[in-house]
Amino acid sequence: MLDSLRTIEEVLGLPPMNLNDALARPMANIFNTTPSRWSFTATPSPFLYNTKLPLPPKPAGLVVPKPAHDSKYWARVTKGMDFSSEDRFDFATYNRILWEGLMGKRPYPAEPTGMDLRQNREELLTRYRQSLKQEAAQ
To answer: pTM score, two decimals?
Structure first.
């Protein structure tokens, strides 16, 4: 724990806060000083193809989900929330608003499932994509 704190201090150029983190070893060995080439191509959410935003052409076969609510709904349920900074609104309330707006009357999760979503990732994604296609067909 202190090693990670010390590493953050080093990255940000901050002095140690106390003797404990001053004596901790920064995790310098996890960083590579020789950059490697990589690229990233952003792809818009399929939901955005329901908007008037200037987007790249829709990929062939892309299922565009039908939104459950329009902008007036979202304006009404988030009325009074201050989005000017991430620290200015109640995350618990916002999460419930998002859940109900996206999931309808499905019960809000009482606790994390503990499922390791890294296992059988392709199978889970296939099932998820199928559910999107079924919802879009309705």
So the answer is: 0.48
